[in-house]
Design a protein that fits this description.
Its EC number is 4.1.1.12. With about 600 residues, the protein is of the alpha/beta class. The chain is built from 23 helices and twelve strands. The strands form three sheets. It has a seven-stranded mixed β-sheet with strand order 2-8-7-6-5-3-4, sandwiched between helices. The structure holds pyridoxal-5'-phosphate. The site of pyridoxal-5'-phosphate has 13 residues, from helix 8.
Length: about 600
């Protein structure tokens, strides 16, 4: 006769955050969820021996030195120049143009050995010898801009600096093999501003409409998923999933041909990709690229927005801007490569001949009339305004176009970052950043105690995305996977790591990746930290395995918190319920962050 004894499950030790609370918090963006995990990790830091290891952040912990040294030295030279014109002590004139390049040469020979002097000499020579710039024009653009005493003119990009940025994009985004023609550039306040401006202008110019169908290559930077759902846009999303797996079931994070083929759907007006991807940090392979190129021939109206912020971490990287230049709007950010997130430096690039301009020219008469009115005060021929110039105007509500443009000191620093790669013929800096993240990868895998995945030349290793379920299935089979899905939320592993070990990682599911996947940033901690993180991950995973193996034993840890239920299926809820849960979760995060800040303040007071 079958036993009538109640079936009990053994669970890993209970956490402070109950399963129902985890479910609520799961609704949040992984970036907000991370704040909550940080409070848990800080708590663990206060009560245990561990220090918090926050590998959730994408902010690199290195900075490029030479272009910064040169920026500050240029500032000193420019101040001298300003004082030549007028010097009332607390007030000076504007840096003069005539003879400024010669004066810079003299200044540099007097300041030989000063930090940034060699680089600045290289800047002058690159402009004069490689670009054939008129020396005074080139140097005056820099001195006047570093001082910031004029509005950006032209607003879109400074004349000489645009050419420097162009060379950088050709070298780093096109692997030195650009397509025919040139790109028009619009330097902006980071990739963040770039995306806001692009979505806005596509809508303003009738290239996208509310409710349109767009494709997102997944996983992706979470904000791009969230933007698509905003009230203003309400796009229908076609997911292009990086669902390719190796023979052993592990993800290689590439896109199967069938996924990319979804772009053949003529309803898709726009496709957005992060290349190399975030989190997996894997760039399109030549095969994937070839398929996209072929596809554009069939669907020539398709606009591709490619965010290539991690491009320099992949050897010989080639962006969509190089392969399908006419259809691509490229977003490049200097933030990660140069460790300059605080500077807010990014650039939008469109090819001089592009689909956006063609499609605008083909708009119905009613739209054309509307756009003539919109841009009519700016130019006598609004219909000839290029999409990139519309971006500039739209970024300042058109009416303020004459004071648009990125701040000039920002354009100078951006140009110097670009020049640091153009002057570095051995690519020493780029190789160093690649080495840093790869050494951390090796340390992480040492800690995990498993072999590294097979080599992939398209992989940048800025982040790692690990899928807990793939590991669970490969190591312990379906029964263990079922035990996990029945008894825990996918984010339980993250909560366990934060609470027990002070390690903060991010929820890969929130990036549109597999629900049990985890993002680890290799950019912001020291090598030794990564092997510790690997070990802590093994410890956390072992807890589940041991509890599962304990089988019929009753839970031995403290009781689950209020509201914790065992069945995962109970997670299904109505949309209204989800909204309320999200609100509650946001409140919980705010409260937890407040509490943690208070605890930190009182801990600091106590330490004084
Ligand atoms: C894919 C991607 N794009 C853009 C950004 C933000 O770039 P920026 O600092 O230039 O605004 C990030 C930051 O993490 C990112 O991961």
């Amino acid at each position: 006769m079958a036993s009538t004894a109640p079936i009990t499950v053994s669970l890993a030790s209970a956490l402070k955050t109950t399963r129902s609370r985890q479910r609520d918090l799961e609704q949040l963006s992984p970036f907000e969820l991370k704040d909550y995990l940080i409070t848990l990790a800080k708590d663990s830091q206060q009560t245990a021996v561990s220090t918090m290891l926050n590998a959730g952040r994408g902010n690199p912990n290195w900075i490029a030195t030479e272009p910064r040294d040169a920026f500050f030295l240029l500032g000193q030279f420019a101040m001298k120049e300003a004082r030549r014109v007028r010097d009332d002590g607390i007030l000076a004139g504007m840096p003069p143009k005539k003879g400024c390049a010669d004066r810079l040469r003299k200044f540099l020979s007097k300041n030989k050995g000063a930090a940034g002097a060699d680089f600045l000499a290289g800047v002058l020579e690159y402009g004069v010898k490689i670009k054939n710039f008129v020396p005074d024009e080139w140097i005056h653009e820099l001195t006047d801009s570093v001082i910031g005493d004029n509005y950006p003119v032209p607003p879109r990009a400074l004349v000489h600096l645009e050419q420097i940025l162009h060379d950088y994009l050709v070298k780093e985004m096109c692997d030195g093999r650009p397509p025919k023609g040139k790109f028009d550039l619009f330097p902006v306040e980071g990739g963040t501003a770039a995306m806001c401006y692009i979505f806005d202008s596509l809508m303003q110019n009738g290239l996208l409409k509310q409710g349109d169908t767009i494709a997102l290559f997944l996983p992706t930077f979470t904000p791009y998923i969230e933007i698509a759902h905003l009230e203003r846009f309400q796009f229908k999303i076609v997911a292009i999933n990086a669902s390719s797996v190796r023979a052993d079931g592990t993800h290689d994070w590439h896109y199967p041909a069938a996924e990319i083929a979804k772009l053949e759907n003529p309803k898709i007006k726009l496709a957005v990709t992060v290349n190399p991807s975030n989190p997996p940090s894997v760039a399109f392979s030549p095969i994937e690229m070839k398929q996209i190129v072929g596809l554009i021939r069939k669907n020539p109206d398709l606009v591709l927005v490619t965010d290539d912020v991690y491009g320099t971490f992949v050897p010989n990287f080639r962006s969509l801007m190089a392969e399908v230049p006419h259809n691509t709007i490229c977003v490049y950010s200097f933030s990660k490569n140069f460790g300059c997130t605080g500077w807010r430096l990014g650039v939008i690039a469109t090819h001089e001949k592009n689909t956006m301009d063609r499609r605008i020219a083909e708009l119905p008469a009613s739209w054309k009339k509307r756009l003539e009115k919109r841009y009519g005060a700016m130019t006598m021929e609004p219909e000839k305004l290029k999409f990139i110039d519309r971006l500039v105007a739209d970024s300042r509500n058109v009416a303020l176009n004459h004071t648009a443009g990125l701040s000039l000191p920002q354009q100078v620093q951006m140009g110097f970052f670009a020049l640091s790669h153009l002057l570095d013929l051995k690519d020493a800096y780029k190789h160093l950043t690649m080495q840093i993240v790869r050494a951390r990868r090796d340390a992480l895998w040492r800690g995990l105690g498993v072999p590294l995945p097979p080599e992939d030349p398209m992989r940048g290793w800025y982040y790692v995305e690990l899928d807990f379920m793939v590991w669970a299935k490969n190591t312990y089979g379906d029964a263990f996977c079922k035990y996990m899905t029945s008894n825990y939320e996918p984010v339980d592993f993250l909560f366990r790591l934060a609470e027990k070990s002070g390690v903060v990682l991010m929820d890969g599911g929130g990036f549109g990746g597999p629900p049990w996947s985890i993002r680890i940033s290799l950019a912001n901690l020291d090598d030794g930290d990564y092997s510790r993180i690997g070990k802590y991950m093994v410890d956390a995973a072992t807890e589940y395995v041991e509890a599962w193996k304990a089988g019929q034993l009753v839970r031995s840890g403290p009781t689950a918190g209020k509201g914790q239920k065992v069945k995962a299926s109970a997670a299904k809820r109505t949309a209204a319920g989800k909204g309320a849960a999200k609100k509650a979760a946001r409140k919980a995060v705010k409260q937890a962050v407040k509490q943690a800040a208070k605890a930190e303040r009182s801990a600091r007071k106590g330490a004084k």
